[in-house]
Design a protein that fits this description.
By secondary structure, the chain is an alpha/beta fold. Helix content is 39%, strand content 20%. The chain contains 12 helices and 9 strands. Strands 1-4-3-2-5-6 form a 6-stranded parallel sheet, with helices on both faces. A 3-stranded antiparallel sheet has the order 7-8-9. Helix 9 links the parallel strand 5 and strand 6. Helix 8 crosses helix 9. The chain is globular, with a radius of gyration of 18 Å.
Length: 259
């Protein structure tokens, strides 16, 4: 496995791999089993697997949230190697947003609802960096998790609107044994906060917005940002809650149900 840090080096490393299919797994590091499931799917389906490793400042609204985001590059690289990744692209902020950078991609309607109401500009940052990664890597397939359902929809719209030649592959949410969706932010929860957080997936598992809201309102120590049925593909019961200083998102696909 090779690790490269510049766009030029990434393109050079990818040149000899272009005779076969290339799969891209974009990550911000702090890898967990959800990320590994994406890497395994890419490894099974593609001739070459690229994992990007970049904590994208443009999708963070607050500098404190960015500073607190967990980072462990050496561990992430070891895990990527163990999963058979061919190339890790780990650029610097300056490499992706050079001096004078001023071009942004904004998926307007999808990016302003749900998470977009609470994190203005978040999906502009997501769409911009994903398009730049697509431009650098030129993957045949790109792998994302259903855990970030709205992000998936934004990227699907991006691919459709800009006629990008990449196939989007979406894998199911991966959960711990207690039902909590895996997230890099889970490490920020105290033991007591994690116990309180379990009310969140249990509420969404009702597959009913009103019942989920009622359960969350009755739970101790949870702040509710939203619980909504989103008209995604498929329709999805999505929500966001705050447990202490940690914000969690989760969702349950309704597989054609409409509530």
């Amino acid at each position: 496995m090779k690790t490269v840090r510049t766009i030029a080096d990434a393109r050079d490393a990818l040149d000899p791999l272009r005779s076969g299919s290339i799969g891209l797994v974009p990550t911000m590091g702090a890898l967990h089993e959800g990320h590994l499931s994406l890497l395994r799917a890419a490894r099974a389906e593609c001739d070459a697997v690229v994992m990007s490793l970049f904590v994208n400042p443009a999708q963070f609204a607050e500098n404190m949230d960015l500073a607190d985001y967990p980072r462990d590059e050496s561990r992430d690289v070891e895990l990527a190697c163990a999963e058979g990744v061919d190339l890790v692209f780990a650029p610097s902020v300056e490499g992706m947003y050079p001096p004078g950078f001023q071009t942004w991609v904004d998926v307007t309607e999808l990016g302003s609802m749900l998470e977009g109401r609470f994190r203005p500009g978040h999906f502009r940052g997501v769409a911009t960096i994903v398009l730049k990664l697509f431009t650098v890597v030129r993957p045949d397939l790109a792998y994302f998790g259903q855990k970030d359902a709205q992000q998936v929809e934004v990227i699907r719209q991006l691919i459709r609107d800009l006629a990008l030649e990449v196939e989007l592959r979406v894998l199911p949410v991966v959960r711990d044994a207690d039902g909590l969706a895996l997230s890099s932010r889970n490490v920020l929860l105290s033991a007591e906060e994690r116990k309180r957080a379990l009310a969140f997936p249990r509420a969404l598992a009702t597959r009913d917005r009103d019942e989920a809201l009622a359960q969350l309102a009755a739970a101790n120590g949870l702040g509710i940002d939203y619980v909504e049925v989103a008209d995604f593909d498929p329709p999805t019961l999505a929500g966001a809650v705050r447990v202490g200083s940690t914000r969690l998102i989760d969702n349950v696909p309704l597989e054609g149900d409409r509530k």
